[in-house]
Amino acid sequence: MKKLINSPDTVVTDALAGMAAAHPSLAVDIENKVITRAGGPTEGKVGLVSGGGSGHEPLHGGFVGYGMLDAACAGEVFTSPVPDQMIVATKAVNGGAGVVHLVKNYTGDILNFQMAAELAEDEGIEVVSVVINDDVAVQDSLYTAGRRGTGATVFAEKIAGALAERGAPLAEVAAVAAEVNERSRSFGVALTSCTVPAAGKPTFELAEQEIELGIGIHGEPGRTRAPLAPAGEIAAIAMDAIAADIPLDGDLLVMVNGMGGTPLIELYGVFNEVNRYIAGRGARITRNLVGNYITSLEMQGFSVTVCRLTDTLADLWDAPVDTPGLRWGR
Amino acid sequence: MDAEFFRAWIAEIAAVVEAQRDHLTQLDSAIGDADHGINLSRGFTAVQAALAQTDTPTPASVLLLTGSTLISKVGGASGPLYGTAFRRASKALGDEPEVDLPALAGALEAALAGVQKLGAAREGEKTMVDALAPASAAFSKAVAEGASSADALSALTDAADAGAQATISMQALKGRASYLGPRSVGHEDPGAASTALILHALRDVATAQAG
Prior knowledge:
The structure holds two protein chains of two kinds. Chain A is an alpha/beta fold. Chain A has helices at 11-22, 83-93, 107-122, 152-165, 170-182, 231-243, 264-280, 311-318, and strands spanning 26-29, 34-37, 47-54, 71-77, 99-104, 127-132, 184-190, 210-213, 224-227, 251-258, 284-291, 301-308, 321-322, 327-328. In chain A, the strands form three sheets. A six-stranded mixed sheet of chain A has the order 1-2-4-3-5-6, sandwiched between helices. In chain A, strands 9-8-7-12-10-11 form a six-stranded mixed sheet. Chain A is globular and about 55 Å long. Chain B has a single domain, classed as Serine Threonine Protein Phosphatase 5, Tetratricopeptide repeat, CATH 1.25.40. Helix content of chain B is 72%, strand content 0%.
């Protein structure tokens, strides 16, 4: 697998250095692998921190900026960051109004953020953690580690970011993030696996005519393997899984997200199918994202995330945002 | 067993996880995200660097530095879980410059308790607990029955190996492998495999020092 890297050991730090050079609005602490807003914390504003393994770009570092995250912690590829990083980030964004940690529901992320929240409390910073667990492919049961945090993370970061930017208090910012999570569901499909730089080969193999249904975002296998089919059929499988879990009615925010290796021409084709599916159910897509937002290196595939909007959530979605990954209204 | 013995154990772990890095990564590809070998290798390299720069006069101080460094350097689930295991073991050993077999047995029990409290895994869920729990139990039993160091450590690693092998037929109920449901069956759990390696390293160092 050919990769455009210098060495597996420097992939993350090279990328962070590149982000720092490309985006003067970001302050990149390469040693701690933490990205914050160049202007520093806003006094009196709730700080919003997220983070996770690298390899999902633009998530999370690309979402640091006005109207969205205050800080992102970058772990090694597909590996959660460590509490030390999260404490650096939490202190850096503390404007005296508390900090929200947005945590994707993976064991590593949960454990490390849990440790960090305890350390932050010891330092007198009030932290509220919100767990994102929108993926419908995994049963939330006693028999699993729970549903994974996937596309809804992007929605939560944007919407909670907007509310924080308006000066809302800690409990409300956390509550709106939890509300977004509760009203969102996702499902992902892979046409290929991906190659972790240090591993040197794909995490799993798919035959020419095979796809993987119910994938996560770390290149891991999904729930089941299936034969390749036209985009319409695959989109319907994803949408059926979501529709089985939440009502598809009213106004919806929909993201058709590329896993990193799928071209826009295909993503737009999938969005067309999703749009038709939703219209067929009598609902309307009133806000959307089509592109690479929460990726898995060069994996080919897509995920779809649907959020049942309210007027308030739609208004917060529309609020101005200025980050490398999302920018409107400014 | 003094601090030097424990430093030798950690050094042996570092060597073994480096040697078995690809194997552990392979196990973690089948039912995970292909980073377990890489993560542990990075973690124990950092531990070795920390031990080289820091005075560790007691066994407990060696294990504490190990655990804290793992938490700071590994990430994922392995960092907090192994980090906590070593830190809890450290706490159980107190300030003695040398510790005996019963103390070591107590330390392993404390490590297991720490891991189970943090990760909430029980035996049978296809995790590191499936190697650590039987290993700790076998070791404590052998020590209580007055077994020699060699025999007790043998019991330790035999149980760890059997436990790791037993994970093959289990369905994962914890961690990333649990997303696969029934598809996780038929693969050895990477965390159980690395736990067995870590305990083998303990036995190998003891054997080398005795011989």
